[in-house]
Amino acid sequence: MTQAPLFQQITDFANRANPYPLYEELRKNPVLHEEEGGPYVLSSYWDIEALLHDPRISSDAANLAAAGDDELSGPEATGLPPSFIRLDPPEHDRLRRIANSSFGPPHRPRRIENMRGELGEIVTGLIDGFGDARQIDLVDQFAYPFPVTVICRLLGVPREDEPRFRAWVDPIVAGLDPDARTSAESQRTAQEARLQLGMYLNGLVDQRAREPRDDMLSDLVNSHGPDGAMTTMEVLSTAVLLLIAGHETTVNLITNGMLTLLRHPEFLERLRNDPGLSVKIVEELLRYEPPVQIVPQRTCIADIEVRGVTIPKGSRIWLMLAAGNRDPERFQDPERFDPDREDIQHLGFGSGIHSCFGAPLARLETQIALSELARRLENPRLVADPPPYRQNAVLRGPRHLEIAFDGVRQAV
Amino acid sequence: MPADYVDWLRREGRIVIVGASLAGLRAAETLRAEGFAGELTLIGDEPYEPYDRPPLSKSVLLGKASPHRTELPHRREIDAKWRLGVAATGLDLSAKRVKLADGDEVEYDRLLIATGVRARPWLKADEGRLDGVCLLRTRDDAADLYQRLKAGPRRVFVIGAGFAGSEVASACRETGIPVTVAERAGAPLVGALGGVIGAVAADLQTENGVDLRTHVTVTSLEGDSVGRVRAVHLSDESVVEADVVVVSLGSVRNTDWLTGSGLGAGPRGIACDAGCRAFDFRGIVTDDVFVAGDVARSPHALFGYQFLSLEHWGNAVAQAETAAHNMICHGADRRPHLWMPAFWSSMFGVNIKSVGVPPMGDQLMITQGALAERRFVGVYGYQGRVIAAVSFDNARWLEFYARQIERGAPFPVEFPTMDRRPEGRQPVAADFPDPSLPTHGPTVTLTGYSPADQQLVFHPARH
Predict the structure, then answer these.
(1) CB B375 to CB A93 under 8 A?
(2) Which residues on A lie below 8 Å from B416 (Cβ)?
(3) Which of A95, A119, B185, B213 could in theory staple to B190 by disulfide, Cβ–Cβ 3.0 to 4.6 A?
């Protein structure tokens, strides 16, 4: 029996708990193309970094559809236009600029920093909520509710609607997994869910158009900068994107973070005494266990040459961010988790024009979450290692993370 | 034995750095980081510890940053002897001594010259002394100009529409001050980016309310009875009343103090090899004098081994690190300074960035975006290859173009790119002014092959 091609092993659940040996295998052939019509899989740091800045690489859903395997991405199929993550310039730039004007500099430079106190309160409340328990599931009781609460407040989505939109979010996220065997069906379900979520958000958007509040939905509806306003459909697909990307990835970053710290207790102990260390810990986590492992939605609009291999125009490209992050060509001792390393760089937030929109928020959330968990949990330890993982190979993380501890210290 | 000498130098030698700004500081840090344990002296003519200059023409003028709060962060302890507020006035190469303005002399075993540039003053000294006539290079200059802008002048007049002059004009408009800009060439930024991009910069200025005068020179500055500037006379015989005049005519390299020293130093800087070792005036490399930053000019393999002097922040850092490394290692461990030139500016809300050497280019293609939208990437070609690129509000792509330059990628750019518009399908002339008619100066100077070139010789128009 022959082994499955490497690129199919990436989506194979058997590799989910520890994909890194597979990534090491991939890097031996950093421009991997195993099957006619299959993707070109890039796994070295410098190549990925270069392609993320290459204007011949497209993220456009329409170009991807032309490359095959993404035929349902067009607006016709869903009624919702693609969000800016699936568009190229100039449309991408216009929509991202409008969205950014209510989120970051230069118009709202302190929006995230000003949430610090609020984030701390939410975290404190969640940890207080552990009560007398001596064991919790970190995902369900902390790592999921925290960023959901935050993104709901930021966007202006009622937190109590979470069970409703979660039913739509889950299939959308599953649709991002490029598993060839389930692709067509899961993408159809995902697009349907995306439309449902858009319709739900449309109700809120209508309301904000009439009565603006201090939230991003109001800003998106009422934006009138130099780029003009978004159409209602554009507002909806942007809101869907921000709602999903605003918490799904952070759940995994926090969970991967706690898992990694429990596997490296010396850093957990140091973090307990020095919350400032969380900055470096989070950066190293983004290198060592990034929540977004793969960017599978790129295609090239010209023949391009990488390491002597010509990738023909129209080919699909998978950028293996997590493999690049442990590339020994780029990092010394890459398989070691070391927040003390002098040059912490990573592809955890991507790079180039699509680099993570929510990065400042994700960083702050995770810094606060991990330092508070470290400070308040007495003698925390893993109940199962490895924990059970989610199916998704792109947004990779534990489905549950059972943690036992001796008690919860008082909040200060 | 040379090997013993380096070991001794690293242990207990004396290294003197003349120039206590960005390049000097980064060199000092690199020396210590790489294990130099000897005596380190930094000499600077300003009374301040090294500070950062880019904010001086931007956030400082807007009142968003204090000119006295732009100290450069230290990357590490450097344990140096500081001689601040005293200029170097001479160099004795054979005795290995730097002479100082206070009469003192400092001996060295190895010397790094990082004296940078100063603002070119107004050509008529008496007019330049009128109250209200300003330069903008130092922290004190910026503090003075900020106070004058804050006082609400009726009109500011900027002589020269290079990057610095344009940034001043931008700050004036942002704070609502009427401003006139005069430029000898046909548009702002032409010396650095050529006429096609210059036209975009011109639109940017006029649309933001700048009274832009091109193809004119300032003939005289007129003062009132108490010695305050009151009007500017132009070569088209017009007169503009202004109470602040900013002279922004580019820079002069600080090499005067080396006159007669025997180093290959002149108005275009100090010639050095790719390893930052200074040449003497005979074109022979020295082994104990190194150069870094704005004052250096060194041959670059990617640009035909032309001697480039770059007034670029990143170049100062990279060259200082290379020079410092080479100063304290054995010959075989030395490395060349082959930094990709890169420059940025911001004005009128637009981020401008370039890589490579645009003034070497003769043709231009807009490969992404559109000139009319003022969001684009333009690629410069020279003799069939990509030599530079510039972006307006599109900086994230430049890394790609930097790699194209490194590879000597062919020009015209044939591959399709996202956001390519019809105007970018054919190359056009980049429209640099004839270099025999100098503007106030680009930030890159191409200086031909002679390292000991002591006078300015402008090359005729290309080909």
Answers:
(1) yes
(2) 56, 301-302
(3) B185
Of A60, A90, A301, the CB nearest to B369: A90
pLDDT tens, A103-144?
988 888 899 999 999 999 999 999 999 999 999 999 999 999
Pairing of strands B110-113, B285-291: parallel
Let me know if residue A100 belongs to a domain.
Answer: yes
- Which sign does the torsion angle of CA A20, A25, A28, A34 carry? negative
Would you say residue B128 has pLDDT above 60?
A: yes
In a domain, A1, yes or no: no
DSSP β-bridge partners for residue B51? B71
Rounded CA gap, B66 and B56, in Å? 9
CATH number of the structural domain spanning residue A164: 1.10.630.10
Largest CA distance in chain B: 69
Establish if B416 touches chain A: CB-CB under 8 angstroms: yes
Distance (Å, rounded) from C-alpha A76 to C-alpha A87?
15
The residue among A48, A51, A54, A355 with the most chain B CBs within 10 A of its CB, best to mutate, is A54
Q: What is the pLDDT of residue A305?
A: 95
Give how far A45 is from chain B: nearest CA, Å: 15
Residue A89 is nearest to which of B368, B400, B416, comparing CB atoms?
B368
- A301 vs B396: CB contact, 8 Å cut-off? no
What's CA B256's distance to the chain center, in Å?
18
Report the alpha-carbon distance of residue B441 to residue B456 in Å, rounded: 13
Residues of chain B in contact with residue A53, where contact means CB-CB under 8 angstroms, are: 396-397, 399-400
A175 assigned to some structural domain: yes
pLDDT digits 0-9 by tens, A283-316: 999 999 999 999 999 999 999 999 999 999 999 9
Residue A90 lies in a domain: yes
pLDDT of residue B446: 59
Residue-wise pLDDT for A216-265, tens only, equals: 999 999 988 889 999 999 999 999 999 999 888 999 999 999 999 999 99
Helices and strands (DSSP H and E) totals, chain B: 8, 30
The answer to whether B181 touches B161, Cβ cutoff 8 Å, is yes
Which domains are delineated in chain B?
3-54+72-116+254-327 (3.50.50.60), 120-250 (3.50.50.60), 349-429 (3.30.390.30)
Look up residue B457 and give its two tokens: 């010789």
Nearest CB to B396 within list A56, A60, A353? A353
A54 CA: distance to closest CA in chain B (Å): 6
Q: Which conformational region is residue B441 in: left (phi greater than 0), alpha (psi within -120 to 50 degrees), or beta?
A: left
Cβ-based contacts of B367 with chain A (< 8 Å): 55
Residue of A46, A300, A301 to mutate for B, most B C-beta atoms under 10 A: A301
The reported pLDDT for the residue numbered A405 is 98
- The answer, for B397 touching chain A at a CB cutoff of 8 Å, is yes
Structural domain count of chain A = 1
Please state whether the peptide bond connecting residue A106 to the residue before it is cis, i.e. omega within 30 degrees of 0.
yes
Mean pLDDT of A83-92: 95
- For A47, the closest chain B residue by CA position comes to B400
Inter-chain contact B419–A301, Cβ cutoff 8 Å? no
Per mean pLDDT, which range of A72-86, A331-345, B219-233, B294-308 is the poorest?
A72-86
The whole-angstrom separation of Cα B278 and Cα B265 is: 9
Chain-chain contact of A50 with B400 (C-beta, under 8 angstroms): yes
Residue B452 pLDDT? 41
Q: What is the pLDDT of residue B441?
A: 53
> Where in the sequence is the domain holding A144, given as residue range(s)?
6-72+80-408
- Which of the four pLDDT bands, split at 50, 70 and 90, describes residue A63? confident
